[in-house]
C-alpha cells in the first residue's frame, strides 16, 4: 500500500517563488520525491546483474556518476565510495527498485537501503550557476577539472552535499542535500544569489 | 589652512569631477581617482592626526599600505575604524577623521554584505606591477588558468607612480595592452582592489577584495562590499613590489616628511605636488629621480642630501642643471616646525659642516625593502642582501617564486624580464608549455649609477647631533627623551630600542615585544627592518648573521566582517529542522538548540510560561495522550550477514540474541569503558537492524560504526547507512495512545498481547505505510510511529485529529526530559560526561556477562573503574519540594557554607599583617558530585533531580546539601526511579 | 587550508576530514589476557614523534572512508596516504 501522494510534502515545499527570483542568472529548483537508494556492493561479480536492473553501468571511477535509461526509465548512479553507490530514479520507484536490486546483489555481499526521503534534490543551471556554487564549494568546477559525469561529496557552505555535474560547459548541476539541511542550504543559495539577480543575458 | 597643491597637468584623476568630503571637520574637494591622502595633500593638508603616546602632529608618510601615520576613521557613509588615508579611495560625501592610535567600532549593525568565493587556477600572480603583469601574461599565453590580484584600483603597480616610457610610449599604454590581452584570454581572472593577505601551504592564497568601498554612498546594497577570495593555485608568483624604507633622524616625524617614492606617486598618479619647497634626503639613486621630476614639475627643490660620498654622476648633473644643491656625505640631523616642517638641519658625516635649510617638505629614501611577506609566510627562507640593506627571498620554493622588486630587482625592464621568467616557470611547473614570449620593452627610466648605502639611523645623541636640540613643542602630551622615531605609529624611538638591547634582549622578537615596534596596523612595514638594523648595530652584529623575523598573515588588515562573510544571522550555523518544523512554528512552539537541530521545547498556550506549559504537557502524557516530534533521533540501517556480530562488539548488551520483530535498549561505550551513546536496536530481519542514537550523536555513532568496520574488522560483511532524515518519528504517549492508534490503524492489532512492549510491527497508520514500535521513554504506554518523512506532516495531523477527543497534546523536549527523569532514564551528554560507566548509571543489567568481548569490557575491570567511591547516578529530593536545584550545582556534606579556602585580605585587615599572621587556609569543601538534571514534576507534585554522587548508591537516604547562591538546599538521596517503580503503566 | 589527498577522492580541503589518531594500533585480540598496565597502554598511550607519523584519517564529509597517512609533524606535509589494508609505505 502506498500513501496518498497528494498529502506528501518535500523539504523545500514553498520555496519555488524565492528560487525563481534568481533567474535568469541561476535557475534553481527542487526536484522532490525522486527514488533514491543506497547500494552497497563488495561482490563485483554481481555488478552485471545490477546493471541489467538499472540499465546503467555502475560507475567504476571514484567521484563520477553514470546515467542512462533502463527498464525503470532514466537512472543515475553516483559513486559514493569504493563499494557504495546512490541510485537516483523517477519518483515512486523506490520499492520496485529496492526489491529488484536486492535480488540482483544476493544476500551476502551488499545492501540496499531506501533513502528517498533522506536527501532532497536541487537542480542549478544558468550562466551564473557555477559562480553561485563557488561561493561555498571548494571544489574546482571548471569543465577541465570537473567534466560532465563528475560526482563529488563535499561541503557547500556548511552543509554536506553530493554534487553531480550534468553539463560542465553549460553549468548544469545537481545538488543533493540532507533533508534537515535543505532549508539552510536553500536560504544560503538564495542569499548568495542576491549578487546575480540583476544579471541579464547579453543579446547575441 | 588649505591651499591648492594640485598641478595643472598630469595624474590619473578626473579633473572635471568634484568630490566634496570632510576631514577633521574641514570641508574639502578632491577629484575622482584621488585617495583621501592625495586629496588632502592637494589641499595642502599634511597633518592627519597626532601620535598615540606623545601627541606629536603626524602627517602622510607614504602613498600605499605601508603608511605608518595617516590612520583615519571613516564616519560616513558607515563607520569604519583603522583605515589609512593612503588606501581610502575618495568619493563624494566621505566624512573621515584622523585617528590617534586606535579606532572606535560602531555599535550600529553593519548594513553591508560580505561574502567569499573560491577561485582555482594554475598560476596565481600577486601584484599587477611590471613583474606581475609580465608573469600573468606569460602564464596566460601558455594556456594556464591565471588569477592576478592587485590591491590598487587599476593595474600598473609602480608604473602608476612614474612618468616612464616603455617602447617610446607612456608606460600606461603598455599596461593597458597587457590588461586588454589578459581580459580577452579565457580563464584569466584579474582582480583589482584585491589584497592578497595570506599565503599558505598547498597553493592557498587568501585575498580581500574591497568591491564597493570606492562607491561611497552609491554602493549597491545587494553587492557584497568585501569579498574574501579563497584562491587555490598550483603555482604562486609573488610580484608584490617593494616598500621604501625611511631613515631615522632627529624629529623625523613631522608632517611634511615623507618617503621620496610616495612624492613621485603623488606627482604622477594624482597630479599633486607634496610641497612648495622640497628637500630630499637619500642613501640611493632613486630619490634623485624624485627630486628631478619634482623640479621638472615646477617645484622648488633646494637641496638633495646624500649620505653617500659618491654622487651618481649623471643624476647629480641633472640635479645641478635644475638648481638642486647636492650635498654628498651629508645627513639630516634634525628638523624644525610645529604642525608642519619648516627647517631641516643638515650636517656632514665628518662633522665639519652643518647648515639649516628652509623646507616645507622633506623627502626621505633609505632604500627599498622587497615585500617578501607572502614568500616568508610560505615558509621561504629570507636572505639579507647587504647591498640593498634588506631581505630578499633566499631559496627556491617548489610552488612559489618571487619576481621583480619583491625579489630585489628595481629596474623596470629587469622586473618585466623576471616576471616573464617567473610566469613561464610557474606555468611550466603547472604543466603548460610556454606560449608566445612577452617582449620586454625598452625603458627610458634612469638607470642606477651608484650603489646604495645602508643607513638605518643617523648617528648622534638622543636629541640629535650638531646642535639640533629637540625642543618640546606644546601641546605635546608628554615629552619623549628621544625624537628619533623608529615606529611612528607606536611612538617608539631609537632610545627605546637601545633600552631593550641594554636590558639584555637580543632576539628581534623580544625587542619587538619590549618596544611594541612593528605591532601596529602596518605591522612594521617601514619600521621593522630599521629596528632590526639598529639592534644589530647596537649588538655589534651583522644582519646577515641574524635570523629575520617570520612574516605572518595578514599582510594588510582584514575586517572581521569580511572574514565572517555570510556566516551570520540565520546562516551563522546550519539550522537543521525536521519535516514537521513548520507545524511547530505555526503552533507556537518555543525551540531549543540540540546540536544544530531546532527542537520544539514546549508549546505554550496563551499566557503560559514554560513551567506551566510543561506541567500541562506532562499531565497529558501521564493521564491522556500526547505526541512529540522525535525525528531528530539518529537512525542507522545496519545490514549484512555479520551485522549481529558487529553489534555484539559495539554494544555492551548482547544483540545477537535479539529476535526478529523485537527491540532492545543498548548502551555503547568507548574503549575506556565510558558511555558514549545509547538507543534502541530493532531487529528487522535476521541480517538487518535499525539502530537509533541520541540526537546529538547521530553522526558520531555512524562514524564510530564505520571506524571499527573499516579499520579493525573489514572482514565483517556489514553495511551501515544513515537513514535519520528518511523517517519522521512520532512517539504517541499516554494511557489513551492505544485508542488513538487503533483509530488510525484498523489493520493493526494494538492489544498488549498482540503488540507487546519492545516489539515492532509494520502497518498502515492514517493510510501511510508505517513502522510502529512499542518503546517508551516516559514509562507510559507508548507507540513510536515511523513513516517516510514526506508523509510525516500527514501522519502528525491525522494523529492530532484522531486524538482530539482524548485531548491529545503536543509536547516538547522539556516535557520529554521531565518524563524520562521521573523514570530515572539518563540522557547521554546530560547525565553523563564521558567519565561515567554503565555501572555508574546503575545499568549493569545492560552489560552482558556472556560475551567474550565488546568495546569497553576490558576497561570495566580496571582498578579505577572498580573503586567503590565512583560517582553513581542517583535521585535527589529537595527538602523543600518547591526548590528547583540548579543543574550543575555541587553536592556537599556540610550544612554550612565554609569560609573561602583562599585567604583574602580585606580593607579591614589589620595594618602590618604579614605572612606569619595569616591563618592557614582550611582545606576546600569536598565536592561529592553534582546535579545533572532538575525539574518540577506534575506527577510527583514536587521538584526532583538526578545527580552523579560519589558512592551514591550507598548514600541513599542520606541528607546532603546543594549550594544555591549563598544558601544551602537540603536534599535527600534517593533511587533514580521516582515514578511508577513497578513499571505498571507501560502496558496501559 | 591544507589539502589532504583522500586515496579515493583525491586532494580535498582539510575541513572534510576527521582525525583518527595514530595508525597501526590494533585492537587487542585477547583483551582479557592483557594486564591492567598493558591494557591501559593500549587505551591511553600514543606516540607523539617529531617527524613522520603514521596516523588515521576519515574523509568524513566525502566518501566516509578511513585511510592512513604518513605526516611530517614538523611541516604538516603529508608524505603518503594509503588504504587501511596496505602496509605503511617507505617515506623519506
Short description:
The complex is a heterotrimer of chains A (204), B (988) and C (92). Chain B is α+β, with helices and mostly antiparallel strands. Helices cover 20% and strands 27% of the residues of chain B.
Q: Oligomer, anyone? A: heterotrimer
Q: Biggest sheet of chain C, open or closed, and with what strands and sense?
A: 4 strands, antiparallel
How can the largest sheet of chain B be summarized?
7 strands, mixed
First-residue to last-residue Cα separation of chain B: 92 Å
Strand runs of chain B, count? 49
Number of folding domains of chain C? 1
Classify the beta-strand content of chain B into a percent band.
25-35%
Tally of alpha and pi helices of chain B: 21
Shape descriptor of chain C reads globular
What's the mean pLDDT score of chain C? 95
Detailed description of the structure:
The complex is a heterotrimer of chains A (204), B (988) and C (92). Chain A is an alpha+beta fold. Chain A has two domains: 13-33 and 118-194, 2-Layer Sandwich (Gyrase A, domain 2), CATH 3.30.1360; 35-114, Alpha-Beta Plaits (2-Layer Sandwich). Helix content of chain A is 21%, strand content 32%. Chain A has five helices and ten strands, in the order αββαβββαββαβββα. A five-stranded antiparallel sheet of chain A has the order 1-7-10-9-8. Chain A has a five-stranded antiparallel sheet with strand order 3-4-5-2-6, with helices on one face. In chain A, a hairpin with a 2-residue loop joins strand 3 and strand 4 (73-81). In chain A, helix 2 runs antiparallel to helix 3 (94-105). Chain B is α+β, with helices and mostly antiparallel strands and 988 residues long. Helix content of chain B is 20%, strand content 27%. Chain B is built from 21 helices and 49 strands. By secondary structure, chain C is mainly beta. Chain C has a single domain (1-26, 46-92), classed as Folate-binding fold (2-Layer Sandwich). Chain C has a four-stranded antiparallel sheet, with no helix packed on it. A two-stranded antiparallel ribbon of chain C has the order 1-2. The longest helix of chain C has 9 residues, at 36-44. At the B-C interface, helix 16 and helix 20 of B face helix 1 of C.
Amino acid at each position: 500500500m502506498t500513501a496518498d501522494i497528494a498529502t506528501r510534502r518535500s523539504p523545500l515545499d514553498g520555496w519555488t517563488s524565492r528560487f525563481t527570483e534568481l533567474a535568469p542568472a541561476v535557475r534553481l529548483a527542487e526536484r522532490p520525491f525522486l527514488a533514491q537508494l543506497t547500494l552497497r556492493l563488495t561482490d563485483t561479480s554481481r555488478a552485471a546483474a545490477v546493471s541489467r536492473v538499472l540499465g546503467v553501468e555502475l560507475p567504476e571511477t571514484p567521484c563520477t556518476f553514470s546515467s542512462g535509461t533502463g527498464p525503470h526509465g532514466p537512472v543515475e548512479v553516483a559513486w559514493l565510495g569504493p563499494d557504495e553507490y546512490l541510485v537516483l530514479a523517477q519518483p515512486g520507484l523506490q520499492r520496485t527498485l529496492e526489491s529488484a536490486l536486492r535480488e540482483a546483489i544476493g544476500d551476502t555481499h551488499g545492501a540496499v537501503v531506501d533513502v528517498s526521503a533522506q536527501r532532497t534534490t536541487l537542480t542549478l543551471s544558468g550562466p551564473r550557476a557555477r559562480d553561485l556554487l563557488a561561493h561555498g564549494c571548494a571544489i574546482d568546477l571548471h569543465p577541465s577539472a570537473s567534466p560532465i559525469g563528475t560526482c563529488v561529496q563535499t561541503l557547500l557552505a556548511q552543509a554536506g552535499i553530493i554534487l553531480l555535474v550534468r553539463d560542465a560547459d553549460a553549468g548544469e548541476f545537481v545538488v543533493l542535500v540532507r533533508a534537515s539541511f535543505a532549508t539552510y542550504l536553500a536560504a544560503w543559495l538564495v542569499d548568495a544569489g542576491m549578487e546575480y539577480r540583476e544579471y541579464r543575458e547579453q543579446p547575441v | 589652512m588649505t591651499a591648492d597643491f594640485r598641478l595643472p597637468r598630469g595624474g590619473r584623476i578626473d579633473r572635471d569631477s568634484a568630490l566634496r568630503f570632510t576631514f577633521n571637520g574641514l570641508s574639502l574637494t578632491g577629484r575622482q581617482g584621488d585617495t583621501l591622502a592625495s586629496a588632502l595633500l592637494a589641499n595642502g593638508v599634511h597633518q592627519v592626526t597626532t601620535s598615540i603616546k606623545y601627541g606629536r602632529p603626524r602627517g602622510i608618510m607614504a602613498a600605499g599600505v605601508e603608511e605608518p601615520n595617516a590612520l583615519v576613521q571613516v564616519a560616513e557613509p558607515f563607520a569604519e575604524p583603522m583605515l589609512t588615508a593612503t588606501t581610502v579611495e575618495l568619493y563624494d560625501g566621505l566624512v573621515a577623521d584622523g585617528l590617534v592610535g586606535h579606532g572606535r567600532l560602531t555599535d550600529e549593525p553593519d548594513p553591508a554584505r560580505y561574502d567569499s568565493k573560491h577561485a582555482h587556477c594554475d598560476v596565481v600572480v600577486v601584484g599587477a606591477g611590471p613583474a606581475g603583469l609580465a608573469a600573468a601574461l606569460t602564464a596566460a599565453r601558455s594556456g594556464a588558468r591565471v588569477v592576478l590580484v592587485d590591491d590598487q584600483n587599476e593595474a600598473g603597480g609602480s608604473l602608476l607612480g612614474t612618468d616612464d616610457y616603455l617602447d617610446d610610449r607612456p608606460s600606461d599604454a603598455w599596461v593597458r595592452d597587457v590588461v586588454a590581452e589578459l581580459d580577452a584570454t579565457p580563464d584569466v581572472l584579474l582582480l583589482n582592489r584585491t589584497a592578497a593577505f595570506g599565503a599558505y601551504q598547498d597553493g592557498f592564497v587568501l585575498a580581500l577584495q574591497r568591491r564597493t568601498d570606492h562607491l561611497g554612498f552609491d554602493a549597491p546594497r545587494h553587492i557584497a562590499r568585501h569579498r574574501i577570495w579563497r584562491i587555490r593555485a598550483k603555482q604562486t608568483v609573488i610580484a608584490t613590489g617593494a616598500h621604501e624604507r625611511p631613515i631615522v633622524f632627529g624629529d623625523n616625524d613631522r608632517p611634511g616628511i615623507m618617503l621620496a617614492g610616495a612624492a613621485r606617486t603623488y606627482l604622477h598618479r594624482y597630479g599633486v605636488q607634496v610641497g612648495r619647497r622640497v628637500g630630499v634626503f637619500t642613501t640611493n639613486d632613486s630619490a634623485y629621480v624624485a627630486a628631478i621630476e619634482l623640479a621638472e614639475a615646477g617645484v622648488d627643490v633646494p637641496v638633495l642630501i646624500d649620505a653617500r660620498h659618491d654622487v651618481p654622476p649623471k643624476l647629480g648633473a641633472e640635479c645641478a642643471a635644475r638648481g638642486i644643491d647636492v650635498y654628498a656625505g651629508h645627513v639630516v640631523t634634525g628638523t624644525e616646525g610645529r604642525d608642519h616642517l619648516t627647517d631641516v638641519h643638515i650636517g656632514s658625516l665628518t662633522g665639519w659642516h652643518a647648515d639649516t635649510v628652509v623646507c616645507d617638505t622633506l623627502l626621505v629614501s633609505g632604500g627599498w625593502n622587497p615585500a617578501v611577506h607572502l614568500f616568508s609566510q610560505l615558509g621561504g627562507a629570507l636572505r639579507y642582501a647587504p647591498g640593498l640593506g634588506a631581505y630578499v627571498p633566499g631559496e627556491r620554493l617548489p610552488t612559489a617564486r618571487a619576481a621583480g622588486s619583491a625579489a630585489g630587482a628595481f629596474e623596470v625592464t629587469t622586473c618585466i624580464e623576471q616576471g616573464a621568467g617567473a610566469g613561464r616557470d610557474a606555468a611550466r611547473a603547472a604543466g603548460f608549455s610556454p606560449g608566445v614570449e612577452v617582449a620586454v620593452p625598452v625603458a627610458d627610466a634612469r638607470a642606477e649609477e651608484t650603489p646604495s648605502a645602508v643607513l638605518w639611523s643617523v648617528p648622534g645623541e638622543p636629541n640629535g647631533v650638531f646642535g639640533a636640540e629637540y625642543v618640546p613643542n606644546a601641546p605635546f602630551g608628554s615629552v619623549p627623551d628621544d625624537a628619533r622615531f623608529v615606529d611612528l605609529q607606536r611612538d617608539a624611538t631609537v632610545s627605546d630600542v637601545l633600552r631593550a638591547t641594554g636590558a639584555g634582549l637580543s632576539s628581534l622578537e623580544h625587542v619587538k615585544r619590549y618596544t611594541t615596534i612593528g605591532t601596529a596596523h602596518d605591522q612594521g612595514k617601514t619600521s621593522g627592518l630599521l629596528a632590526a638594523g639598529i639592534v644589530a648595530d647596537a649588538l655589534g652584529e651583522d644582519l646577515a648573521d641574524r635570523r629575520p623575523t617570520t612574516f605572518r598573515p595578514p599582510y594588510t588588515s582584514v575586517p572581521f566582517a569580511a572574514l565572517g562573510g555570510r556566516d551570520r544571522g540565520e546562516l551563522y550555523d546550519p539550522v537543521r529542522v525536521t519535516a514537521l518544523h513548520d507545524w511547530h512554528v505555526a503552533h507556537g512552539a518555543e525551540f531549543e538548540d540540540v546540536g544544530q537541530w531546532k527542537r520544539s521545547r514546549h508549546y505554550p498556550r496563551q499566557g503560559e510560561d514554560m513551567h506551566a506549559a510543561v506541567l500541562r504537557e506532562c499531565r497529558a502524557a501521564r493521564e491522556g495522550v500526547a505526541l512529540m516530534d522525535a525525528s531528530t533521533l539518529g537512525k542507522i540501517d545496519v545490514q549484512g550477514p555479520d551485522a549481529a556480530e558487529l553489534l555484539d562488539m559495539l554494544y555492551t548488551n548482547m544483540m545477537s540474541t535479539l529476535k526478529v520483530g523485537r527491540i532492545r535498549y543498548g548502551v555503547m561505550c568507548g574503549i575506556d569503558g565510558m558511555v558514549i551513546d545509547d538507543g534502541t536496536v530493532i531487529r528487522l530481519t535476521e541480517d538487518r537492524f535499525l539502530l537509533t542514537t541520541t540526537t546529538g550523536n547521530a553522526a558520531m555513532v555512524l562514524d564510530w560504526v564505520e571506524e571499527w568496520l573499516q579499520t579493525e574488522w573489514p572482514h565483517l560483511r556489514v553495511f551501515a547507512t544513515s537513514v535519520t532524515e528518511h523517517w519522521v518519528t512520532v512517539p504517541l504517549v499516554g494511557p489513551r495512545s492505544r485508542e488513538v492508534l487503533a483509530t488510525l490503524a484498523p489493520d493493526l492489532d494494538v492489544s498488549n498481547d498482540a503488540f507487546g512492549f519492545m516489539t515492532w510491527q509494520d502497518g498502515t497508520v492514517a493510510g501511510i505505510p508505517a513502522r510502529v514500535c512499542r518503546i517508551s521513554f516516559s514509562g507510559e504506554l507508548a507507540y513510536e510511529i515511523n513513516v517516510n518523512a514526506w508523509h510525516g506532516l500527514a501522519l502528525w495531523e491525522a494523529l492530532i485529529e484522531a486524538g482530539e477527543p482524548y485531548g491529545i497534546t503536543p509536547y516538547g523536549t522539556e516535557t520529554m526530559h521531565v518524563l524520562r527523569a521521573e523514570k530515572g532514564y539518563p540522557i547521554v551528554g546530560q547525565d553523563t560526561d564521558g567519565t561515567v560507566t554503565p555501572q555508574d548509571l546503575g545499568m549493569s543489567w545492560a552489560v552482558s556477562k556472556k560475551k567474550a568481548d565488546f568495546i569497553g569490557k576490558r576497561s570495566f575491570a580496571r582498578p579505577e573503574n572498580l573503586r567503590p567511591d565512583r560517582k553513581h547516578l542517583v535521585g535527589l529530593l529537595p527538602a523543600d519540594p518547591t526548590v528547583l536545584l540548579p543543574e550543575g550545582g555541587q553536592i556537599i556534606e556540610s550544612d554550612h557554607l565554609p569560609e573561602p579556602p583562599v585567604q583574602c585580605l580585606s580593607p579591614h585587615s589589620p595594618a602590618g599583617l604579614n605572612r606569619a599572621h595569616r591563618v592557614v587556609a582550611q582545606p576546600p569543601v569536598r565536592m561529592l558530585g553534582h546535579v545533572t538534571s532538575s525539574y518540577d514534576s506534575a506527577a510527583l507534585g514536587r521538584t526532583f533531580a538526578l545527580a552523579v554522587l560519589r558512592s551514591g548508591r550507598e548514600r541513599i537516604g542520606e541528607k546532603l546539601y546543594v549550594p544555591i547562591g549563598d544558601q544551602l538546599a537540603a536534599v535527600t538521596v534517593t533511587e533514580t526511579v521516582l515514578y511508577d517503580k513497578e513499571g505498571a503503566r507501560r502496558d496501559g | 587550508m591544507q589539502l589532504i589527498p583522500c586515496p579515493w577522492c583525491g586532494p580535498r580541503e582539510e575541513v572534510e576530514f576527521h582525525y583518527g589518531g595514530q595508525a597501526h594500533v590494533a585492537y587487542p585480540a585477547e583483551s582479557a589476557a592483557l594486564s591492567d598496565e598493558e591494557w591501559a597502554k593500549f587505551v591511553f598511550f600514543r606516540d607523539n614523534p617529531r617527524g613522520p607519523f603514521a596516523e588515521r584519517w576519515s574523509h568524513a564529509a566525502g566518501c566516509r572512508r578511513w585511510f592512513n597517512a604518513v605526516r611530517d609533524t614538523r611541516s604538516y606535509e603529508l608524505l603518503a596516504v594509503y588504504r587501511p589494508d596496505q602496509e605503511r609505505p617507505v617515506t623519506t
